[in-house]
Amino acid sequence: MALSPNYITPKGYSVLKSEYDRLFATERPQLVETIAWAAGNGDRSENGDYIYGRKKLREIDRRLGWLARRMKAAKVVDPAQQVNRDRVFFGATVVIADEDDTQREITLVGDDEAEAGAGRVGWNAPVARALRGAAIGDLRRVMLPGGEREMEILEISYPDPAA
């Protein structure tokens, strides 16, 4: 089964890369050193430093594997390079109004960098899928956990290419 590309902004990719580098170059070696020290202290079955260290090492290795897979599948897309700026595509910042005339500003980003509280919505989220390809003035319907909602696109913007 072919997975869809893992679209991500350059900033989002650098965050993943820096976490990978920090875990691999700093935290993991320190933990291995602690485990080796704890293993040298005798009985490992009741050695808290050893047991906790091994558990933490498994967690770090699992996270490193996940980060490596996400970075390998990543397709870095710079929204500032978007040519067609009158429609909603990856990286667009969109002002929408719902049926209650409540306005929200959201930015469509990669799923790994989504943070709804900060207005960053993942590219594969229902709202983002509904907005893809929309132009100013378009009405789009989206099915949310609270029921179906209709949204109107009020503004579309992209980062400045010079920035």
UniProtKB/TrEMBL annotation:
Q: Does the keyword Transcription apply?
A: yes
Q: Does the keyword DNA-binding apply?
A: yes
Domain of life according to the entry:
Bacteria
User: GO molecular function, one example?
Assistant: translation elongation factor activity
Pfam families, per the entry: GreA_GreB (PF01272), GreA_GreB_N (PF03449)
Q: The Transcription elongation factor GreA/GreB C-terminal domain covers which part of the protein?
A: 85-158
Gene3D superfamilies per record: Transcription elongation factor, GreA/GreB, C-terminal domain (3.10.50.30), Transcription elongation factor, GreA/GreB, N-terminal domain (1.10.287.180)
Q: Hey, what's the signal peptide range on this chain?
A: none
> HAMAP family this protein is in?
GreA_GreB (MF_00105), GreB (MF_00930)
NCBIfam families named in the record? PRK01885.1
The entry assigns this protein to a family as follows:
Belongs to the GreA/GreB family. GreB subfamily.
According to its UniProt entry, the function of this protein is described as:
Necessary for efficient RNA polymerase transcription elongation past template-encoded arresting sites. The arresting sites in DNA have the property of trapping a certain fraction of elongating RNA polymerases that pass through, resulting in locked ternary complexes. Cleavage of the nascent transcript by cleavage factors such as GreA or GreB allows the resumption of elongation from the new 3'terminus. GreB releases sequences of up to 9 nucleotides in length.
Name used for this protein in its record:
Transcription elongation factor GreB
